């Protein structure tokens, strides 16, 4: 069984300070499995799932049903509330549970992106919980070479210098089957295709339809299947609207819904300190990137997923206020990714299939922003560090640098 060690460690850090932790993430990324894994470390534990009819009836009959939990010893019990967000009054329920039992129990609440949706509105739970995100599997997690946050930022251009064959094999498996645990573990093309088709249909035709007022699910589904061919380029909402013969505002709204339900994530352009930078266009990436046929776009999407996972986890743990962007000016010079901390650039990252020559745009923007830079090259055999004026630039295969991401 996958141990998901970085997320178990994140849970321990957050639950040491808050007795209520919400775990949000894409459907089928392993939230229930991780919750049960965490529960194994508790002598006294109880698992509740709203989707189990008997569990649902128990809660409706007695909201504080967990008080009846038999205790083996005097240690603090863990109560896992899975899919509780499907309960109409779940926020008020958790508010009451926390206010009454915060000193006696630890609560772990798991759910899909809906936890994020409600969090972005008026949040009656404010101040009562910490939120952690669980993402699909990444090379940084699977490779088990993650550096501590402080040591990683002390040398952003350090690499893993041994056991590269197994790391490359992990990367190639992710590229073929995505980071979602079920297709990744099966590692069979036919299984992946069946899983992917069913996954997206259920998410759009069930979760999104049930959770929103949107009923044009056929058009939404058509929009989603246009997106893999748009990865890697600034997204034209106007172009999508014209292709589907749907209003611009409708397409923009649907893309926002896709983002909230973890079908996609998007990056804003970096505009500070860049002359003639674009300010409106976004770039969009898929969580199920194995759908992408173009090798260069799929590679860029995989790097985006690794960086997004890292930035999200750093923010969840309170290690900083990080954001992930891309760089593009009106002359169409572009760098794929920029990580900033409190609006200060800390790292530039470019993704290339085979070109080990430093990207002219990367060199230009690095000199302008005065930040370290990494050019990840899928087909590179070894790493090398170059000088760009007074700055350093690392060129390396992804499996030699990415595994160090905390």
Tell me what you see in this structure.
With 406 residues, this protein is an alpha/beta fold. Helix content is 41%, strand content 18%. It has two domains: 5-133, Rossmann fold (3-Layer(aba) Sandwich); 139-404, no CATH class. The protein has 16 helices and 13 strands. The strands form two sheets. The chain has an eight-stranded mixed beta sheet, sandwiched between helices. Strands 2-3-4-1-5 form a five-stranded parallel beta sheet.
Summarize the structure.
With 406 residues, the chain is an alpha/beta fold. The chain has 16 helices and 13 strands.
- Estimate the global geometry from the Cα principal axes: globular
* Number of H- or I-type helical stretches: 16
Largest sheet: 8 strands, mixed
Spatial order of the strands in the main sheet?
7-6-8-9-10-11-13-12
Order of helices and strands: HEHEHEHEHEHHHHHHHHEEHEEEHEEEH
How large a portion of the residues is in β-strands, by DSSP E? 15-25%
**Parts with pLDDT < 50 across at least 5 consecutive residues:** none
Q: What is the end-to-end distance?
A: 22 Å
* Class by SSE composition: alpha/beta
How many distinct domains? 2
Mean pLDDT: 93
Question: Would you count the extended β strands for me?
Answer: 13
Helix content: 40-55%
Measured on Cα atoms, how large is the radius of gyration?
A: 22 Å
Give me the secondary-structure topology:
Elements (H helix, E strand, L loop, with lengths): L4 H11 L4 E5 L6 H9 L5 E5 L3 H9 L16 E5 L7 H12 L4 E6 L2 H6 L10 E4 L5 H4 L6 H6 L9 H14 L3 H6 L2 H23 L5 H10 L10 H8 L3 H13 L3 E6 L13 E4 L8 H22 L5 E7 L5 E8 L2 E9 L7 H10 L3 E5 L6 E5 L2 E6 L1 H4 L5
Parallel strand pairs: 1-4, 1-5, 2-3, 3-4, 6-8, 10-11, 11-13
Antiparallel strand pairs: 6-7, 8-9, 9-10, 12-13
Helix pairs in contact: 10-11, 12-13
